[in-house]
Amino acid sequence: MVSATVVLREYDAPAYIDGDFEPVASDWIPVLDKAAGIPIGRYADSSADQVARAVAAARRAQPGWAATEAPGRSAVLRAFARELEARHDELITLLIRETGGTAAKAEEELGQSVTQLLNSATQLAETAGDILPPYKPGKLSLSRAVPLGVIGLIVPWNYPMSLAMRALAPGLAYGNAVVLKPAELTPIAGGQVLAEAARAAGLPAGVFNVVPGDGAGTGQALVRQPGLDLIHFTGSFEVGRQITQFAAGSLTPVVTELGGDNAFVVLDDADIDQAASCAVWSALWYQGQTCITAGRHIVMRAAAPAFTEAITERVRRLRVGDPLRADVDLGPVVSEQQLRRFHDGLVLPSVAAGARIATGATHDGLFYAPTVLTGVTPDMPVFTEEIFGPVLPVTVADSEADALDLVNRHRTLMNSVFTGDPMRGLAFAERVASSEVHVNDGYARPGGEGQQAGFTKRQWIGVQTAPVTYPAWAEARH
Ligand code: NAD
């Protein structure tokens, strides 16, 4: 067992609105320990009425919170961080059980959440805007950062706490109120715990509200609420597209953080051992269930046999099991639905189309053997779709130009290129159409989830400090 393991209480996760945990009128739904398959708590779907009341409570509370002096808001955010830290051992165990990740993944997530609160507590006290250059004599021009208002926040299950916190912490810091809908698979670490900690920290009632529930009911009810000032969504392309289309009708601004069909490129002069270790780590951390997981492994023909052998050998040694055990590398995938989506929907059709299984592609319940597929061609589903599971598909490229073309065929969030010549890697990276490329490395964990921006808008205030003369017609001087 990992050292932090504690016996958890049975959690209830009802709606948290205007500072109160509400009585539950509908049925409770169990929240499962993803490895053991037994309940660790329960949540209730929030109704459209509850969502409306949560948004109304946020609307009422927001002006007072925005008017709270910066040191006061900063103190509440620091207290919020202390509340989470004080529950460290409990929350590590909870994150392991509720997400199915290892202790290392849970530590990463809790650490990021605390850091995000502390960073936001500092940033809010640092600056409130700028003084602009004068454009006319005697005019003082100020550009002031003001809160957006009420933010609707929708979060997935893979990093339920830190993906909520990356918008919640800066959102609150800059004087916004937030209504959070956590994912239905993770409403405790992603909602209930945050509500408890915020309340204990003294965040005023209504500034932060949580409406657990499914996407089709509670999620839709939230995005349909009139008057949200921002919808902040992290999740799949499909749902992101639906939300964006819907919000276009009311012109509600939407931030979408979506998935990626990320590429891991090995050029013919790469250090194979380095590339293989990084590939296994980047593809299989948290069972490959992150948006920046290395998905497509595109390898130049000369490097392909050695690279494939090196990753297969490493993958075969990985230990799959209950992530509460310290000797386990990979826990379960999060749900039967996810397993069916990538195994039945992507892996098996790719094998039927000619991909070869070097190792894996079997499962015992949700415990999926990490998998290496070779002979993957660009038309196969494991190449064309985001896998979001513990699978490394290897595709051979005939040239560097061919590799680049394959990378750029799909939308990516994060990519890697391995080469013995860093300048060759830099030149390759410059031609990758993506916001993130690493030469001879995977992505920058831990702490890779950066602080999100965009939780304020700018207000220009001009103050005429010296008398000014207006045109004669305006002053009626003719
Ligand atoms: P999902 O889109 O199915 O669900 C995400 C959230 O949206 C959940 O809370 C869900 O209940 C809600 N939702 C579902 N349908 C809805 C609807 N019609 N209206 C409103 N809300 C709705 O995604 P998921 O399976 O939970 O997460 C996996 C996806 O998230 C992957 O594609 C992954 O790449 C992406 N992701 C992206 C990032 C990032 O920062 N870019 C981070 C993590 C995960």
Note poorly predicted spans: none
Distance between the termini: 90 Å
Structural class: alpha/beta
Ions and ligands: nicotinamide-adenine-dinucleotide
Strand order of the largest sheet: 15-18-19-14-13-20-21
Strand portion:
15-25%
Quick gist of this model?
The protein has 478 residues and is of the alpha/beta class. It has 14 helices and 22 strands. The protein has a 7-stranded mixed sheet, with helices on both faces. Strands 10-9-8-11-12 form a 5-stranded parallel sheet, sandwiched between helices. A 3-stranded mixed sheet has the order 1-5-4, covered by helices on one side.
Question: What does this protein look like?
Answer:
It is a single chain. The chain has helices spanning 48-67, 70-86, 88-99, 103-123, 160-173, 188-200, 215-223, 237-250, 272-284, 304-316, 336-352, 381-384, 400-407, 422-430, and strands spanning 11-13, 16-17, 20-21, 28-32, 39-44, 129-132, 139-147, 150-154, 177-181, 208-210, 230-234, 254-257, 263-266, 296-300, 356-359, 363-364, 367-368, 371-374, 391-397, 415-418, 437-439, 456-464. It is globular, with a radius of gyration of 25 Å. Helix 12 links the parallel strand 18 and strand 19. The strands form 6 sheets. A 7-stranded mixed β-sheet has the order 15-18-19-14-13-20-21, sandwiched between helices. A 5-stranded parallel β-sheet has the order 10-9-8-11-12, sandwiched between helices. It is built from 14 helices and 22 strands. The mean pLDDT is 94. The protein is α/β, with parallel strands linked by helices and 478 residues long. Helix 2 packs antiparallel against helix 4. Bound molecules: nicotinamide-adenine-dinucleotide (NAD). Nicotinamide-adenine-dinucleotide (NAD) is lined by residues 154-158, 163, 181, 183-184, 214-216, 219-220, 223, 234-236, 239, 242-243, 257-259, 291, 386, 388, 413.
